[in-house]
Design a protein that fits this description.
Strand content: 5-15%
Number of strands: 6
Largest sheet: 2 strands, antiparallel
Number of helices: 2
Order of helices and strands: EEEEEHEH
Oligomer: single chain
Distance between the termini: 24 Å
Radius of gyration: 16 Å
Shape: elongated
Helix content: 10-25%
Length: 101
């Protein structure tokens, strides 16, 4: 729901606190299936840059990932199984500084 700001104008740019989640604004980027991971499911630099360029939104929901090797469905799908895949995902938050997207 959009919050009404001064003068009754609707604005998605005000902060939002929902439970333990505190967002800088109410803009949420929906998950996008971009098929940009390596053949081994490791997130690539292209993915890291994609998230960094959009870091000013309140919340980024990443694309669908496979949580087990049996869950991999298509080439380019990122995984959350191996140490290399986890390390690849850890690069995104370090490059996503709020307000610098």
């Amino acid at each position: 729901m959009l919050h009404q700001g001064r003068g009754g104008a609707l604005t998605p740019f005000l902060p939002l606190v929902a439970g333990d989640l505190s967002l800088a604004n109410r803009i949420v980027m929906a998950p996008l299936t971009r098929s940009r991971a390596g053949t081994d499911g490791v997130p690539t630099e292209v993915m890291v840059n994609h998230h960094a360029q959009r870091s000013s939104v309140g919340l980024i929901i990443s694309e669908g990932t496979f949580p087990s090797l049996a869950g991999k469905v298509f080439d380019g799908q990122p995984g959350l199984v191996t140490d290399a895949q986890l390390a690849g995902w850890r690069r995104s938050p370090t490059r996503c500084t709020p307000g610098e997207g």
